[in-house]
Please model this.
Amino acid sequence: ISELKRLLKKQSIVIVGFMGSGKSTLGRKISTQLSMTFVDTDKEIEKQENLSIKKIFESRGEKYFRKREEEYILQLVQKNTESLLISLGGGSFINDNVRWAIKEKKIISLWLNVDIKLIFKRLQNSKEKRPLAQEFDTEEKLNSLLKKRSIFYKDADIELKVQEHKMHSILSLTYNTLYKYLENKNEKDQY
Model:
């Protein structure tokens, strides 16, 4: 971990991926261990709007939410002066302006690519009902949306393929992958 901290210097990381992939859970754990400030963009937008994401979708629509999401992320990325670990909402990285700003600021983007069966199971068991999970309520519908978004997720600097749900294994894979990426002077790769 100390070597990884040294290689990271003050670089920030964004975790991208599909809803239910575990971005926030992983982000909180990594940020603690790497002494980074953790930001969950969905939670921050909920605080600013004083509404849940679900309520924002219901009362103001997805278009309004996506605009607020873009504004918040661009402001966060542009004003970033510290080492942040940012968990982006599932649809954030499909926004060209968001992806461009992340690349421009040389923030490391990490795609948490989780098996659709695991995602579907997580969403079914989740107490927190996500707005799009109601519309995409079968594994087939979810997989269709994931395929559309994967085109954009593939732009991430690092792809982490996750087939299991043991956090210690995912953390180990993440640290090893980040280490290799930083050691190889930020060459894009898939692990």
In short: DSSP finds nine helices and six strands in the chain.
